[in-house]
Protein: Bactericidal permeability-increasing protein
Organism: Chordeiles acutipennis
Amino acid sequence: IDDLAEVDYSLNSLPAVFRPFIDLDLKGLVYPAGNYTAPPYVAAPFTIPDQSDSMLYLAFSEYFFQTSSFAYYTAGAFNITIAEETCSYFNISTEIFGSIIPEVAKYSVTPYPVKLKLMATEIPAISLEQDSFTVEIQGSMEVFAVLPDSTTQSLFTMNIAANTSIALNIFDQKLMGSLCLNR
């Protein structure tokens, strides 16, 4: 897939060949690149509704998304550092946090740039629903002040729990998504 994850798309069984179609049962297991680690999930069988008005049907199971989440978590993809150099539009300073958190204002009288270290603390849980899928992420965020000598001083750490629903639709021959923060 990329330098963090690989996919095993081998056949689970021999192809079923029928007069109007061929049924291919592919494994669809995603694992960390170069590290075939068994995921902590069990694949559940599923069926595609019987339809015959399209030439190709492609289905992804919840297992595929769960193993993808496991692979990227194991590879460290959910650990992100956001600094002023990383994002030109990201311009948060200790002054902004000081207006929200009084302890930061006491510590940092002079405004310093801020660096955020975001990391998932558990494998993000993905579940498929009728018209959308839900992603639950547990993580933490550590906020650092970047001092004039380029060293950093930890200001605070907070735990984060987010539950998000994502609905996908095809509109005007384009795949569109809508994101809803549930909590």
In short: The first strand starts at residue 5 and ends at 8.
